[in-house]
């Protein structure tokens, strides 16, 4: 079955390649002058999320080209480092965090699922994902102008297209933004793995990820983060037209600095649907399912925390004030969530655990993601504390209420934490509560604040759309996979462990 999937994937990539060639236009005139839109706010105001890149424009006259913005080497260096940090989050960070939580007989299967999913999504991102997420299309999805990254680099002229940041006249090479956003897409899909660990076919993982990435991640990313960029707002007469070209949720004014909706809620809902549709693990509720190595889980959580500074602070797209604010909030909120989770465990069980501390760190990181550059320092601490307690409930009380075998508590941490962070972003963004506010006029880059309740409702709408969209796409995708190759391994294979039955290897010897 895995061979059939790989053959189908190869055929699909080949067909896309033919389509890209047939629609290709000479990029030599366009690449040097591309203007790329960003996400939802300016870096100085810290008001939203990562930034997209627009389709190639016609060549500018020599005089215009001479005055085109030149990227700052410090910004480029910061974005390259941030991209590396997000890769560190996924491999090895997420892989080791998840791997330590499963039983030893399934260690390699989880490592493989995260590692290969990351690789698969990276390739799909280059082929069509980036284009559908971050080029102009409609309010729900982008277009095909950047298939196979067409126009991003012109080898004949030796020129690179530029992408806007959150400040007028400030750019970075679009290829850097492409790489940065590829890591977001890849780790989002990797997060889902934890919900159905220890019982799913390897081929089913890859086919599901392809479908869900295409029909859930890409549209949500476009709806939340795509807009025309600050330089497009040249006067009040173009504001409505520019706003109308943005993604639906961006048009509403929702704030998501680094992926509370796009990454965490999106992935968590898909994982929960998968946990329901695959059913519970053999022996669930009757046998002990204890983590086989909390040492590896702690190492993984630590790598996640380190890498998350690139995830959040890198989403400023510039090495400036917004990145500094996001960096500090990522630091403080995570530490606050660790303390909150440990305190909650001590109150409930009489002891704080290493697993709890590691889980608390991830909960804080998740919750501060949409808020990182959108709230003040105190707001960040509050979000961390609330997330620590809320996610502890998510993996205990809520999990019992839902009745799903979410193996590694993807929904309890990423779903609950993402929702808490997204909603509280709407509260603590207010300048009256110490937040940086948001850009209220992109022509003049004026910063202000919406009413707390008004922004909270906007955030809630964004959360609701993400939950429903991801759930529907996940349910359909899992059903398609089940019909095509089947979802679960046999009971015998599950009892033997997926390391041996799916990969013919074992993590430990002797």
TrEMBL record:
Pfam short name (any one): Ammonium_transp
TM spans (from-to): 76-98, 110-128, 175-197, 204-228, 248-277, 289-311, 323-342, 354-372, 378-398, 410-428, 456-478
Ammonium transporter AmtB-like domain boundaries: 77-508
Subcellular location: Cell membrane; Membrane
Cleavable signal peptide: 1-26
Main location: membrane
Keyword Transmembrane set for record: yes
Membrane topology, from the record: Multi-pass membrane protein
UniProt keyword list: Ammonia transport, Membrane, Signal, Transmembrane, Transmembrane helix, Transport
Family: Belongs to the ammonia transporter channel (TC 1.A.11.2) family.
Protein name in UniProt: Ammonium transporter
Species: Sphaerotilus microaerophilus
Organism classification: Bacteria, Pseudomonadati, Pseudomonadota, Betaproteobacteria, Burkholderiales
């Amino acid at each position: 079955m895995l061979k059939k999937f790989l053959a189908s994937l190869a055929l699909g990539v080949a067909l896309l390649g033919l389509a890209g060639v047939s629609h290709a236009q000479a990029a030599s005139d366009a690449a040097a002058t591309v203007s790329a839109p960003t996400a939802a706010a300016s870096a100085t105001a810290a008001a939203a999320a990562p930034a997209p890149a627009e389709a190639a424009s016609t060549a500018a006259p020599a005089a215009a080209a001479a005055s085109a913005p030149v990227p700052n080497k410090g910004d480029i260096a910061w974005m390259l480092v941030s991209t590396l940090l997000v890769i560190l989050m996924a491999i090895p960070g997420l892989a080791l965090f998840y791997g330590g939580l499963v039983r030893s007989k399934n260690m390699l299967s989880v490592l493989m699922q995260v590692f290969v999913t990351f690789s698969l999504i990276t390739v799909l991102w280059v082929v069509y994902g980036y284009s559908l997420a971050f080029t102009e299309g409609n309010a729900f999805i982008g277009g095909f102008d950047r298939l196979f990254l067409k126009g991003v680099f012109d080898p004949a002229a030796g020129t690179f297209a530029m992408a806007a940041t959150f400040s007028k006249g400030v750019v970075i090479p679009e290829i850097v933004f492409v790489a940065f956003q590829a890591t977001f897409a890849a780790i989002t899909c990797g997060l889902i793995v934890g919900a159905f660990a220890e019982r799913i076919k390897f081929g089913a993982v890859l086919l599901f990820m392809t479908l869900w990435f295409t029909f859930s991640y890409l549209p949500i990313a476009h709806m939340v983060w795509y807009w025309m960029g600050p330089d497009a707002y040249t006067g009040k007469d173009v504001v409505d037209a520019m706003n109308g070209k943005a993604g639906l949720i961006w048009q509403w004014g929702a704030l998501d600095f680094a992926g509370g909706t796009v990454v965490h809620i999106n992935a968590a809902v898909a994982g929960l649907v998968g946990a329901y549709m695959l059913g519970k693990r053999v022996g669930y509720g009757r046998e002990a399912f204890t983590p086989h190595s909390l040492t590896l889980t702690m190492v993984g959580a630590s790598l996640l925390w380190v890498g998350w500074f690139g995830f959040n602070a890198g989403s400023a797209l510039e090495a400036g004030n917004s990145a500094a604010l996001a960096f500090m909030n990522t630091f403080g909120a995570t530490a606050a969530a660790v303390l909150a989770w440990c305190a909650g465990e001590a109150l409930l069980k009489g002891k704080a655990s290493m697993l709890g501390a590691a889980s608390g760190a991830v909960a804080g990181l998740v919750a501060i993601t949409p808020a990182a550059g959108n709230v003040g320092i105190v707001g960040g601490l509050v979000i961390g504390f609330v997330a620590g307690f809320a996610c502890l409930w998510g993996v205990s009380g809520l999990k019992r209420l839902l009745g799903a075998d979410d193996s590694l508590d993807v929904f309890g941490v990423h779903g609950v934490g993402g929702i808490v962070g997204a909603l509280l972003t709407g509260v603590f963004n207010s300048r009256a509560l110490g937040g940086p506010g948001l850009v209220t006029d992109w022509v003049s880059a004026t910063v202000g604040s919406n009413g707390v309740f008004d922004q909270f409702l906007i955030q809630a709408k964004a959360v609701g759309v993400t939950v429903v969209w991801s759930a529907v796409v996940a349910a359909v995708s899992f059903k398609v996979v089940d019909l095509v190759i089947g979802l679960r391994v046999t009971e015998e294979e599950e009892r033997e462990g997926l390391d041996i039955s799916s990969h013919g290897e074992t993590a430990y010897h002797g």
